[in-house]
Design goal:
The protein has 283 residues and is an alpha+beta fold. It has a domain of 183 residues. It has six helices and 13 strands. Strands 1-5-9-10-11-6 form a six-stranded mixed sheet. It has a five-stranded antiparallel sheet with strand order 3-4-2-13-12. Strands 7-8 form a two-stranded antiparallel ribbon. Strand 9 and strand 10 form a beta hairpin. The longest helix has 14 residues.
Length: 283
């Protein structure tokens, strides 16, 4: 039996209360959002080249429950994490945990107000295993390549090349940058989910699953593949991002499924109504 790895849901940089629309006659509707994310561990491994995909940016305003002050601010604005006894998808999660085909990355639920797309605040997620400092993200390499100056080739105006750089020099610079980093671990799953309300509920996902560019299966290693792996040893420590970026119109109280070949997400959005007893006590 597999047990899910403890996941972290982060919420940060909250808007001040004054920035939220207020109306005494029409209070903002509240929704319970429950998310289950899991990966497919039976995906065939391939040696095909994958185009680099960057980790999404979270912007200046996103919600973060990693600090006590943010938790309190989030509650004042209508955001809160739901306790385990309010989760509706425990049976689904139990089947995933028991399955040999899937591995649970995270299961979390929160309550939030329904806001227009231009006012909605993304929820930033981190989950799954935490890779150690011996790994580096493809994001680091992309940032490094972007930072290297380049000049136009005088012989061909449309051709560009790196200025005085060799593969050895690039690798050395990358190693120096990697050594200087203090990323405190790279999460296997990271990204954001934004729930917005217009005429219908809309969910915007921008998540990445980090997996080594090259995965070694020692049980299937033979002489030919061992030689190949030796030449690509560095690729076993580079984490590629597999992206799940999608916009989906949602029906409340209905379980929705989003996926790519590497991982998938179940999401259930339920309108929340405060118990009558709470409403009477609040007066």
């Amino acid at each position: 039996m597999k047990f899910p790895i403890v996941c972290l849901l982060t919420f940060a940089s909250l808007l001040p209360a004054a920035a939220w629309p207020q109306s005494d006659s029409e209070p903002l509707p509240l929704y319970d959002v429950e998310v289950v994310i899991f990966k497919n561990i039976k995906v065939p491994q391939s040696r095909e080249f994958a185009l680099p995909v960057a980790l999404p940016g979270h912007g200046d305003k996103y919600v973060d429950l990693s600090s006590a002050s943010s938790v309190e601010a989030a509650k004042e604005l209508g955001f809160e994490i739901l306790p385990a006894d309010q989760l509706r998808l425990m049976d689904v999660v139990a089947r995933l945990v028991e399955s040999s085909r899937y591995e649970l990355l995270m299961h979390v639920a929160w309550r939030q107000p329904g806001l227009d797309r231009d006012k909605a605040i993304p929820v930033w997620l981190k989950g799954g295993r935490i890779y150690g400092n011996e790994y580096t993200s493809i994001d680091d390499q992309m940032e490094l390549m972007d930072s290297i100056p380049y000049v136009a080739d005088p012989n061909e105006e449309t051709t560009f090349k790196f200025d005085a750089q060799t593969p050895e020099a690039l690798q050395q610079q990358l190693q120096q940058q990697r050594s200087a980093m203090d990323h405190q671990g790279l999460y296997e799953l990271e990204g954001k989910i934004t729930v917005a309300l217009s005429r219908y509920l809309h969910v915007y996902t921008d998540l990445v699953l980090r997996r080594p560019r090259l995965v070694v299966d020692e049980a299937e290693t033979n002489a030919a593949s061992a030689e190949y792996l030796a030449s690509r040893a560095a690729d076993t420590r580079i984490l590629n991002n597999h992206q799940l970026k999608e916009h989906r119109r949602m029906r409340s109280k209905t379980l929705h499924y989003l996926d790519n070949p590497q991982f998938a997400m179940l999401i259930l959005i339920t309108p929340y109504e405060a118990p009558a007893a709470d409403a009477s006590n609040s007066g």
